[in-house]
Amino acid sequence: MLIGVPAETVPGEKRVATVPAVVEKLVKLGFSVAVQSGAGDAANFADDTYRAAGAEVVPDAATLWSRADIVFKVRPPSPQEVGLMREGGMLVGFVWPAQNPELMQQLAARKATVLAIDALPRQLSRAQKMDALTSMAGITGYRAVIEAANAFGRFFNGQVTAAGKVPPAKVFIAGAGVAGLAAVGTAANLGAIVRANDTRAEVADQVKSLGGEFVKVDYEEEGSGGGGYAKVMSEGFQQAQRAMYAQQAKDADIIITTALIPGKPAPKLITADMVKTMQPGSVIVDMAAEQGGNCELTVPGQAVVRHGVTIVGYTDLASRLAKQSSTLYSTNLLRLAEELCKAKDGVVNVNMDDDAIRGLTVIKDGAITWPAPPPKLP
Ligand code: NAD
């Protein structure tokens, strides 16, 4: 079967779904691979490196989509791209079926089979090698700290210099899931004093092991909802949390927010009043910007200055590290391809009896199969 890799079309998206090193491995699995000319340019993978790895380079998107049996993509396809797709073809990539009902209908009308990498049952340990949400979150957490350091006018680490003593920066991280923990580790490695909070108290040890201090909200309430994810907390908890965050905001030089609740708008944790209490030159990086933001003053996609504080609301943090994110993402897709093609004969078998494959198959031969029943845990 022919796997096609188009250039991403969302403006500013620099990632590519397959890198040359993964092309070689797909060829070993028996697949042919076609890449749209220039698809890897923004991630520093030139056409020639794809050719050297065994891919065919095709000139345009229309040729690519019409010939491919399976399309590997990063972002959900646009209506135009769905229009180019071969009837009965297969699509693998981020789809976000809950947020994109029209796209689901368009893909179903093409009689497509669609594997949404964002619908992978992450709680299955054997699914971890395919978990692109975790790979991307690790990168965005790292990049959030780099963006913060870039916007901050001081060192992260404390220094004693001939010109005077410099205190370490204080970083507060709201939400310590995959991205938040990556931010804790990165900021601690740069030498900052790092504190973090999450409604799921079980992450406290992980924060500590990465060099941070876990700060508790003074209110007893279990924060875990279904599948290890967060839930909306009671009004009482939220009040106590706001009081604690107000204290942290006064003290912190940098706040990085990552708090998300599946299927809900991002919780507003940093109010405009809290921003006013921060020192001029402080920085907030709001990683929840795309889902409405954790800070009241965030402008999605932009860095703005409010009350002397730089508030970074970039929604393309993974794309800003395009070579790294493309490499990890395409390795996640390779692991999926290995699961789909156990015979290594270049033919995929979408086994709906396999919990991991069932979970991410959101459309099968034109029939919408999302949401999947919960997987059976061992
Ligand atoms: P996410 O991006 O949905 O949320 C980010 C973090 O925000 C979470 O840790 C959440 O608890 C926190 N949060 C939500 N509301 C908050 C609030 N009001 N205040 C403070 N924090 C708040 O989550 P994610 O990083 O994709 O994953 C969350 C968790 O899911 C992981 O940390 C892990 O425990 C679990 N997970 C499990 C597996 C697995 O079992 N293999 C794989 C991936 C993730």
From TrEMBL:
UniProt-listed GO biological process terms: NADPH regeneration
E.C. designation(s): 7.1.1.1
EC primary class: translocase
Catalytic reaction annotation: NAD(+) + NADPH + H(+)(in) = NADH + NADP(+) + H(+)(out)
UniProt-annotated location(s): Cell inner membrane
Domain of life assignment: Bacteria
Location, primary (coarse class): membrane
Keyword terms, alphabetized: Cell inner membrane, Cell membrane, Membrane, NAD, NADP, Nucleotide-binding, Oxidoreductase, Translocase, Transmembrane, Transmembrane helix
Domain Alanine dehydrogenase/pyridine nucleotide transhydrogenase N-terminal: start-end pairs: 4-140
Membrane topology: Multi-pass membrane protein
Family: Belongs to the AlaDH/PNT family.
Function text: The transhydrogenation between NADH and NADP is coupled to respiration and ATP hydrolysis and functions as a proton pump across the membrane.
Name of this chain's protein: NAD(P) transhydrogenase subunit alpha
Source organism: Ramlibacter humi
